[in-house]
Amino acid sequence: MKFQMTNQKLQLFSYSSLTDIVMLLLIFFLLTSQFVINTGVKVQLPGAKQNEQTVPSKLVVTIDLDGNIFVGSEGVSIDKLPGKLEEIKAVSNESMLIIRADKTVALDFVINVIDAAKGVGLEKFTIETEKLSY
């Protein structure tokens, strides 16, 4: 049996494999862009029209409705807050603190958290807000 071999250029290119790769990349980027670091503490954040996306940080302090202070999801008192911030700062080399305070929390609580953070050498602070849609 004789096989005929020709060295001709391929007339038709199959885009199916290229389409599969592009679709997988699209799904990957859509899924990974939706991940947001949130602590387990539920708070109602104050609203702002000019809201910016916060940079993820390991130094997140949350103040809930009752005035309880959490570093990550671990509850701490205001007296032990500087030690906990110092410990996390030494491990992660973070220089910015994100404060997630409930919108009904007194400003005095937020000032106390900022004072504790300044005591351990943190100079950059961000107060997290929700984007208002009106």
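[next item in queue]
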Amino acid sequence: MQQFPCPFCGLRNEQEFHFAGEAGKTRPDTMKEVSAEQWSAYLNHYNNPMGKTCEIWVHLPCQEYFVMQRDTVTMEVFASEQIRKDLK
């Protein structure tokens, strides 16, 4: 079983985590008109890279979201950090 580092709780079993999306994906500006194509692209299109990537994950027991840097091929985890730096 793989262990993932939660920046709030420490090293935990991978079954306690849920993938929440790509880090850095920009939501369309809802203060402007957004076409159906723009919403579709935002909701349904993913890069799905091979290799090192940044992703948003949630640790279910503490309900905290964070960014994890990992390799999608080897599953090696390089770092995990809080999304909001002002919480430290």
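[queue empty]
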